[in-house]
């Protein structure tokens, strides 16, 4: 079965009742609703599972004391550890893209993560083997990898399904599934812990059936489109990608490298702000424990664990509730009327406003409120922009470069944040305000780079999904079918011999 037609008639009489309902959010055309709903449900399950796992990492990290490091240093340095892990994982994943069809790649990667969850459930603190030193750090690093790769590969799959015109209309709708899934997961985690209905240790197990269902839905979608990607096939312009990994592809293209650096800056700003928030929460919980007269080591650890987990459950809920509102009512309309540029530049503008406010008033409630605004924009507006950006790209680039950028370079931003904390804490004795000032400076560079990316992306899109002026066009496309991420479907970057040419636009 081929993809839903992008040029189907738009008369309301031909729409199903579900498609009429979906049109409240975006422009859904006849025949598109079924596939879009399955993708919506798929990403809903993935993000719901992720947000059952994510708040636990802060709780586990809160009871991991390492060599007198402050909580600010501990979180920043642990985030940097993710970068080192992902450098190897991204290289390994890139080799799998060439080896396996996309359904096999996604299935096996998700099953691998599910096996990891089962292992962490067995060795988690104070469960079967007591408190294992360093387990909070190991879990923090792993959750970062899980959140980067599993989510990124879903969006690579989504970008591979849709032609550019369809993607502009339907990806914002599918992204509602991501934000609503994240909000649901955070809500469930917070309520189950607060109401003491489920021991927090069993939240890990609760994520497994959700991920299993996501695999089933992905395979169902892949069956419906007959395994076909964003085109029905193409003749390669040469085997220029043979033997090349994902990282050389990103570094060898100025456009992809710019996207990678913007991602690095985005995450550096975000992680540095979250490290400061984590330190502020740790201080507040310690004060609360002292006021409650808790002094015993075991009791204090339990209080810190529960207090930190509860704070972040509420924090993530409000982030995702706000993100859901923005995703449903703002994202698609902003893309339709403001274009990709308005979508892509929204987050750096919000971040600049947020950190300027935190710089002026560095109170915990202000930091929390501004971080909710920043993260909600990131998880809705910026996420939509991040996925729309890849619509003109070939299948090869989508499955190799996107997961690499969304994981390795995103976590490299954590490394930059960790370096900032190291220098700021050990050399300059920075307080909260100093870190916020650093972020304001980084955001200035980020905005400049984002403007360049928007202009280059516009040139890619103006050619109808054709070639970048700096990228030579490939030969005419064949009528063959693509069977997996490793198929060659793009032109060649003359400067780097790396295929980054977008696919042709769909017929009008």
Q: Would you kindly provide a written description of the structure presented here, covering whatever features stand out?
A:
- The protein has a two-stranded antiparallel sheet.
- It is mainly α.
- The protein has one domain (26-232, 242-464, 481-493): Growth Hormone, Chain: A (Up-down Bundle), CATH 1.20.1250.20.
- The protein is built from 13 helices and 2 strands.
Number of strands: 2
Q: What is the number of domains? A: 1
User: Helical segment tally?
Assistant: 13
Oligomeric nature of the chains? single chain
In whole angstroms, the N-to-C terminal distance is 21 Å
Q: What characterizes the major β-sheet?
A: 2 strands, antiparallel
Structural class assignment: mainly alpha
Strand order of the largest sheet: 1-2
Shape: globular
The average pLDDT is 78
CATH-level-2 architecture: Up-down Bundle
Name the CATH superfamily classification: MFS general substrate transporter like domains
Low-confidence stretches: 1-13, 231-243, 464-508
**Portion in helices:** over 70%
DSSP strand (E) fraction?
Answer: under 5%
Q: What is the class in the CATH system? A: Mainly Alpha
Task: Say what the CATH topology is.
Answer: Growth Hormone, Chain: A
The arrangement of helices and strands along the chain is: HHHHHHHHHHHHHEE
How large is the radius of gyration? Answer: 23 Å
């Amino acid at each position: 079965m081929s993809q839903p037609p992008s040029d189907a008639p738009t008369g309301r009489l031909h729409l199903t009742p579900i498609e009429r309902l979906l049109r409240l959010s975006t422009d859904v055309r006849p025949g598109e609703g079924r596939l879009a709903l399955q993708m919506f449900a798929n990403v809903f399950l993935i993000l719901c599972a992720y947000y059952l796992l994510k708040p636990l990492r802060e709780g586990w990290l809160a009871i991991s004391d390492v060599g007198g490091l402050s909580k600010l240093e501990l979180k920043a340095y642990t985030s940097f550890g993710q970068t080192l892990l992902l450098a190897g994982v991204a290289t390994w994943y890139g080799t799998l893209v060439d080896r396996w069809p996309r359904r096999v790649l996604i299935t096996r990667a998700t099953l691998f993560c599910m096996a990891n969850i089962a292992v962490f459930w067995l060795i988690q603190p104070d469960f079967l083997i007591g408190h294992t030193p360093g387990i909070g750090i190991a879990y923090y690093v792993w959750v970062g990898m899980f959140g980067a790769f599993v989510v990124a590969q879903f969006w690579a799959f989504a970008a591979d399904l849709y032609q550019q015109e369809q993607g502009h209309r339907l990806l914002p709708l599918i992204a509602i599934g991501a934000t609503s899934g994240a909000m649901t997961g955070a809500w469930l985690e917070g309520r189950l812990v607060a109401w003491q209905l489920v021991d927090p240790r069993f939240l890990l197990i609760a994520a497994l059936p959700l991920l299993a269902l996501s695999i089933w839905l992905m395979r169902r979608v892949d069956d419906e489109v007959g395994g076909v990607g964003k085109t029905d096939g193409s003749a390669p312009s040469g085997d220029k990608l043979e033997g090349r990994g994902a990282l050389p592809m990103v570094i060898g293209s100025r456009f992809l490298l710019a996207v990678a650096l913007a991602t690095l800056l985005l995450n550096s700003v975000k992680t540095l702000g979250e490290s400061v928030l984590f330190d502020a929460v740790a201080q507040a919980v310690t004060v609360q424990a002292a006021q409650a007269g808790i002094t015993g080591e075991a009791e204090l650890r339990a209080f810190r664990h529960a207090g930190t987990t509860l704070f972040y459950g509420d924090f993530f809920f409000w982030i995702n509730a706000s993100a859901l509102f923005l995703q449903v009512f703002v994202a698609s309309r902003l893309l339709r009327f403001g274009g990709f540029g308005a979508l892509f530049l929204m987050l750096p503008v919000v971040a600049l406003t947020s950190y300027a406010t935190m710089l002026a008033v560095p109170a915990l409630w202000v930091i929390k409120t501004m971080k909710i605004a920043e993260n909600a924009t990131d998880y809705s507006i910026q996420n939509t922009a991040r996925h729309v950006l890849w619509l003109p790209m070939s299948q090869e680039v989508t499955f190799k470069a996107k997961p690499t950028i969304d994981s390795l370079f995103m976590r490299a931003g954590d490394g930059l944040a960790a370096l900032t904390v190291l220098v700021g804490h050990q050399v300059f004795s920075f307080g909260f305000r100093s870190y916020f000032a650093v972020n304001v400076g980084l955001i200035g560079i980020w905005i400049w780079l984002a403007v360049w990316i928007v202009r280059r992306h516009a040139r890619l899109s103006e050619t109808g999904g054709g070639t970048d002026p700096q990228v030579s066009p490939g030969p005419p496309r064949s009528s063959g079918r693509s069977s997996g991420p490793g198929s060659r479907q793009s032109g060649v970057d003359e400067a780097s011999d790396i295929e980054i040419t977008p696919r042709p636009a769909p017929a009008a």
